[in-house]
Amino acid sequence: MTTNNKNQIVENLRKEIDNFKAEVKAEKIGHVVEVFDGIAKVSGLSDIKASEMVTFANGVEGVALNLEEDSVGVIVLGDFSKIREGDEVKATGKILEVPVSDLQIGRVLNALGQPIDGKGAVKTDKTNPVERVASGVMSRQSVDQPVQTGIKAIDALIPIGRGQRELIIGDRQTGKTAIAIDAILNQKGQNMICVYVSIGQKDSKLRKIETRLAEGGAMEYTIIVSAGSSEPAAMSYIAPYTGVAIAEHFMDAGKDVLIIYDDLSKHAVAYREISLLLRRPPGREAYPGDVFYLHSRLLERACRKNKDYGGGSITALPIIETQAGDISAYIPTNVISITDGQIFLETDLFYKGVRPAVNVGFSVSRVGGSAQIKGMKKVAGTLKLDLAQFRELEAFSQFGSDLDDATKRQLERGKRAVEMLKQPQYSPVVVEHQIITLYALVKGMIDEVPVEKIKEFEAGLIAYAENNAKTFLKDIRETKMWTDAGEAELKQAIGDYKAGFLS
Questions:
Q1: Interatomic CA distance for residues 394 and 392, integer angstroms
Q2: What pLDDT score was predicted for residue 404?
Q3: Which residues pair with 368 in a beta bridge?
Q4: For residue 50, what are the CA distances in angstroms to 54, 74, 95?
Q5: Taking all residues of the chain, what is their mean pLDDT, rounded to a whole number?
Q6: What are residue 344's DSSP bridge partners?
Q7: Which of 174, 287, 347, 433 is in the most buried spot, having the most CB atoms within 10 Å?
Q8: Contact indicator for 127, 97 with CB cutoff of 8 Å
Q9: Angle in degrees, CA 284, 286, 291, rounded to 5
Q10: Residue 40 forms beta bridges with which residues?
């Protein structure tokens, strides 16, 4: 070996020694004391934070929920059957977070934000924490932009605005999910991203919903987050927070998001199960004491940001299932007090054929007319009161036979209003068509049309108005309100169509 080569080797060694940095990596490690029903008791993790993620020896992740003096209660996010007593548990130092990306649109994800639709992974480096403090008052602005659901009974009587939280409540099989799916279908072309969170639902129901959304072209702007009924309670507990973390990614980018939680009754039950397994003291109906906070910290994250903070919004439609119409139970009253109004669906109305089965008396929107366009506000102003009075008169008229003419007229108008507000599933109506039919109803222009012919009349009137009330429709589409010339044209069109229909 030449002297030059030796010198070169020595030089290289010297450089490597100079560049060498010893890295000491400290890991917090504990051990499983006990494992049962998706819960692991772990000792040795004294420095762990609440909601911090941990990794078990077999690669399954968990979240620290209970911090006790001598142990930590961890909920296992996955299969707990392979975890054994004495297994190592590593703290990751990270609070629970989920991946977020624009590429998640059109995908079905699990409660940890990972794709489960067989279409491959979603590549993203960005994550959002599952738990985040809701936006403060100074970053918000008032709700005055409508979310058109395409459902006449809701858009006219219980309007929903961008940034609002409107509860859908009713017994099982009264059409709660149907309203939510119709609202998603109607967002086509409305510049709205939708997130549907399925909590504890059967896989067959989720597949039907996904197929229906795909057929309606809604999966192009929709993300589904699912925690199935066969998965551990921990997944049902985390799923809504994952959904809102994904929604916040789009809101922070200045976009409008509609998020549906289907349903929060199952979410509360999952949390009750976890809490009782963690030996937390039970309260009313065996729910833990912080079950109100469970939902309030979730729903408060829905808001409309002002221009300085990007101007995005999250509109939340939580669903609650009642037992035998009892809206005074613990969870329904909690969620009613958090939200900005509720759409109450009634079993009796559903079986009478009034669908959507919205009870106008119990339903309310605390945002009111400010979430409606001017044209709809003007035409629907008195409709809710008229319908409420009709319900009372209807009950009263069953006992008395001789009614005065004014009462008879009101009853006849009410019957036509109920008929007009009926709507088949998966057939949302655009707002300008809603205004045409409601205008004809409120102005008494369909009082002579027989009740059983109302649906036929309505369909024909919309088609006729498209060709013969073009000024009116142009006014509504462009300025959200009609002009005198447009109104005169619409009156003429309704009169001409009615004359032909009745003859």
A1: 5
A2: 83
A3: none
A4: 11, 10, 8
A5: 92
A6: 169
A7: 174
A8: yes
A9: 70
A10: 35, 74
- Tokens for 11, please give them: 């030089």
Percent of the chain exceeding pLDDT 90 equals: 81
First and final C-alpha spacing in the chain: 114
Q: Would you say residue 24 has pLDDT above 70?
A: no
* Cα distances (Å, whole numbers) of residue 151 to 154, 311, 322: 6, 26, 22
**Is the confidence at residue 84, as pLDDT, over 70?**
yes
- Please, which residues bridge with residue 227 across strands? 199
pTM: 0.92
Tell me which residue of 144, 221, 152 sits closest to 184, measured CA to CA. Answer: 221
What lies within 8 Å, CB to CB, of 192 at 6+ separation is: 147, 221, 256, 257, 258
155: closest CA among 455, 369, 440?
Answer: 369
Decide: 88 and 29 in contact? Cβ < 8 Å: yes
For tokens 């080569």, the residue is 5
Residues belonging to the active site: 366
Strand 256-262 vs strand 192-201: parallel, antiparallel, or unpaired? parallel
CB 150 within 8 A of CB 183: yes
C-alpha 381/C-alpha 453 separation (Å) is 25
In the Cβ-directed half-sphere of 214, how many Cα atoms lie within 13 Å? Answer: 10
Q: Which of 13-22, 303-312, 486-495 has the lowest mean pLDDT?
A: 13-22
What pLDDT score does 20 carry? 74
Q: What is d(CA 294, CA 83) in angstroms, rounded to the nearest whole number?
A: 28
The pLDDT value recorded for residue 338 is 97
- Give the whole-angstrom CA distance, residue 265 versus residue 321: 6
Contacts of 399 (CB under 8 A, 6+ apart): none
Query: Sheet of 222-228: strands edge to edge?
Result: 108-109, 222-228, 192-201, 256-262, 313-321, 167-170, 341-345, 364-365
Three-state SS sequence of 67-96: ECCCCEEEEEECCCCCCCCCCEEEEEEEEC
Instruction: Report yes or no: 224 and 198 within 8 Å, Cβ to Cβ.
Output: yes
* Range 113-117, long-range pairs (CB < 8 A, 24+ positions): 113/225, 113/242, 113/245, 113/246, 116/226
How many Å is the maximal CA-CA distance in the chain?
A: 124
